[in-house]
Fold:
Amino acid sequence: MDTGLKVEDSDRKMEIAIGQMLRYGVVGSGLVVAAGGALYLGKSYGVATRYATFHATAPSLRTIAGVLHGVGRLDPESLIQLGILLLIATPVARVVFCLVGFLVQRDHVYVAISLLVLAILVYSFVRGTS
Amino acid sequence: MSVWIFSSLLFLTSAVAGLLGSLTGLGGGVVLVPVMVLLFKVDLRYAIGASLVSVIATSSGAAAAYVRDGLSNIRIGMLLEVATTLGALLGAYLTAKVSNRAIGITFGVVLLYSAYASMRKRRYEAVDEPPDPLAVKLKLEGSFNCTGVVESYSARHVPLGFGIMFGAGTLSGLLGIGSGAVKVLAMDRAMRLPFKVSTTTSNFMIGVTAAASAGIYLARGYIEPAIAMPVMLGVLLGSAVGSGMLVKAKVPTLKAVFSVVIVALGVEMIYSGLTGRL
Structure:
């Protein structure tokens, strides 16, 4: 079937674009985390760890605004957290890429399904971090 | 322990976990949580937060492999992500309600199941029964080139697969793991997808599922940068090396070794949970 093949080709293009984006996302977030980690280790020489009992992280590390503010002050932990936020954003970006691909294909059912997944992701993030 | 020693040891451990996880297809998270809790004496909630970060890193990092293969099915993945992300929300909600002991015991049981599922022979045979009408309607079909022969497939038992995926998402949100073993159960066994398709599709689904609970974990203060940093970097390094080695490695032997480790950790997690040491 001719049309079926076209959809598969277009799916394949989508896949390649997504793969590239994910790779940049992972490498980029890894570099930010590494930079934050180097700063963190620099200031923590001789400091003892304390993770046996749970204390929630500082409030500034728990919201996007708090993290960005900390990055402005070059706070090492905020920089690591920014890298982690970028990492969390990569699979979300993947869903957006697929959504765009399905829009181009005019596949309304999958546009709706992608929007639903995106809505769940946004809900959890907004609900969680505000 | 000093921060420097802690970070270096955790980095090395995570690199080994990422290496073995990518070689055996089980992911690094399943061993990292128990190792952090039992050996590094890190509170379970920090361990789960860091593991979730590592799970997203490996899932997104595996992109290169499936772009090359072109086996993953984006429609099947997207549809099932509705189930896994909803499950992940439920799981992340439950972590705050359930005791460390109960989470530990659940974790142990999932470890034992993962070991069992990974040792089991996976055979895919084309099924004679007619395709699920829902699968046809939702275009849950495809084809792939298997050593020169083009094989087509179509999903079966879509509602059952969707239901199991909801469970996989819940476990992922509760335990901070990819729950690949349960995803395989849904895609290979219930939906009858060829295992190369289910492995690669579940691989990228894992990142989206984990992202659904990551915001909640971050907001609750479970994601401690000082712990997540060595874990994420270590796992990334380990899995990058692992995927390069995949062609040469003796996977069956590795899988057997890894399974023994997982069983030991699973038993220890259940024991620690029962005796209240978590």
About this structure: Chain A touches chain B through 72 residues (CB under 8 Å). The mean pLDDT of chain A is 89. The longest helix of chain A spans residues 2-43. Chain A has four helices and no strands.
